């Protein structure tokens, strides 16, 4: 059955100097409305490729993505995107940065209505007292809060997060994870997040989708999280299934590593055999 968000037979081929490189192939995933899915996999397997295709920032080579009955064919305000670095306009205030998006989505709202929406989301992320502070004067964690407020203020059907906490220290990271979960529960936004952190995936998501190693990466395994919401970190950590799930995810990643090492060794052997055959024939 099709989900609220559907990735069907999604594929991406990049043109490279050595010819076409099939990075993602036959990637299939259904997400329910309001579901939080984390995408986990080794570096370079194709996670950002999948996410940027969903954001409409990277052309789809094969298959497609449907969000709320709408087939993705470019970027749009129905999808909020947060990257590792929030890319704010440094000379603008926190409020002005959020208003950039709000003005586009609510062109018919009054100035004061648009101001209130931007201020509301900045307050939710804990920046109610910093609305008029220039982005360049905000700490990295505060800038990321602005990025999150900007994405939510668009009232998107889907939120796409590419390692949004990757550049933050662990305390700020944990704090922002909780801020994000609180708003997500309130607004019930369907979310796809990339992370390298197994514990973050366990704490945040309803489902963790493990990608196989590329090339031709696809969904390798899906883990369902048994933890109740709203989530309390200590309760999640003490849940009887936590360490079993964590272990299974790490085993999956290790298996992928072994496969890759085997493939690399085979490639090397083949190359050496070809080279020695060439040497003999010369
Ligand atoms: N524009 C491009 N042209 C050619 N190859 C690309 C392009 N963009 C990405 N790639 C390659 O596609 C593969 C997947 O990249 P991608 O950034 O999607 O991986 P990732 O899983 O998000 O990696 P990481 O976890 O390190 O961010 C990599 O081998 C990368 O070099």
Give me the secondary-structure topology.
Blueprint: E1 5-16, E2 19-31, E3 36-40, H1 47-55, E4 62-67, E5 70-71, E6 79-82, H2 94-105, H3 111-124, H4 140-153, E7 158-162, H5 170-187, E8 190-194, H6 198-204, E9 207-211, E10 219-224, H7 233-238, H8 242-281
Helix pairs in contact: 2-3, 2-4, 3-4, 4-5
Adenosine-5'-triphosphate (ATP) binds at residues 14, 16, 21, 23, 41, 43-49, 214.
Total domains: 1
Number of helices: 8
Stated plainly, the CATH topology is called Rossmann fold
How much of the sequence lies in strands comes to 15-25%
What is the CATH C level class, in words? Alpha Beta
What structural class do helix, strand and pairing data support? Answer: alpha/beta
At the fourth CATH level, what is the homologous superfamily?
Answer: P-loop containing nucleotide triphosphate hydrolases
Distinct bound molecules:
adenosine-5'-triphosphate
Helices and strands, in order, run as: EEEHEEEHHHEHEHEEHH
Q: What is the β-strand count?
A: 10
Helix content: 40-55%
Report how far the terminal alpha carbons are from each other: 60 Å
Largest sheet, described in full?
6 strands, mixed
Overall geometry: globular
Mind telling me which CATH architecture this is?
3-Layer(aba) Sandwich
- Give the overall pLDDT as a whole number: 92
- Walk across the major sheet and give the strand order: 6-7-8-3-9-10
Question: For the CA atoms, what is the radius of gyration?
Answer: 21 Å
Unreliable residue stretches: none
């Amino acid at each position: 059955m099709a989900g609220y968000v559907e990735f069907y037979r999604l594929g991406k081929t990049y043109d490279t100097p050595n010819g076409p490189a099939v990075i993602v192939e036959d990637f299939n995933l259904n997400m329910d409305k309001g579901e939080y899915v984390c995408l986990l996999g080794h570096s370079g397997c194709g996670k950002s490729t999948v996410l940027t295709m969903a954001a409409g920032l990277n052309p789809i080579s094969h298959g497609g993505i449907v969000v709320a009955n709408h087939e993705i064919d470019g970027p749009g305000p129905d999808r909020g995107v947060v990257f590792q670095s929030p890319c704010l306009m440094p000379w603008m205030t926190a409020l002005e940065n959020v208003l950039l998006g709000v003005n586009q989505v609510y062109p018919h709202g009054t100035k004061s209505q648009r101001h209130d929406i931007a201020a509301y989301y900045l307050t939710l992320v804990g920046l109610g007292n910093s609305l008029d502070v220039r982005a360049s004067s905000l700490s990295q964690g505060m800038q990321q809060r602005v990025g999150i407020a900007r994405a939510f203020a668009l009232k998107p059907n889907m939120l796409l997060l590419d390692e949004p906490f990757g550049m933050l220290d662990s305390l700020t990271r944990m704090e922002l994870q909780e801020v994000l979960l609180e708003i997500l529960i309130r607004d019930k936004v369907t979310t796809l997040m990339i992370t390298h952190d197994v514990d973050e995936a366990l704490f945040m998501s309803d489902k963790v989708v493990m990608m196989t190693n590329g090339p031709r990466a696809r969904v390798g395994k899906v883990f369902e999280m048994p933890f109740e919401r709203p989530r309390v970190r200590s309760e999640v950590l003490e849940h009887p299934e936590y360490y079993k799930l964590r272990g299974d995810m790490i085993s999956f990643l290790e298996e992928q590593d072994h496969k890759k090492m085997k493939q690399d060794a085979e490639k090397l052997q083949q190359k050496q055999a070809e080279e020695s055959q060439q040497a003999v024939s010369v």
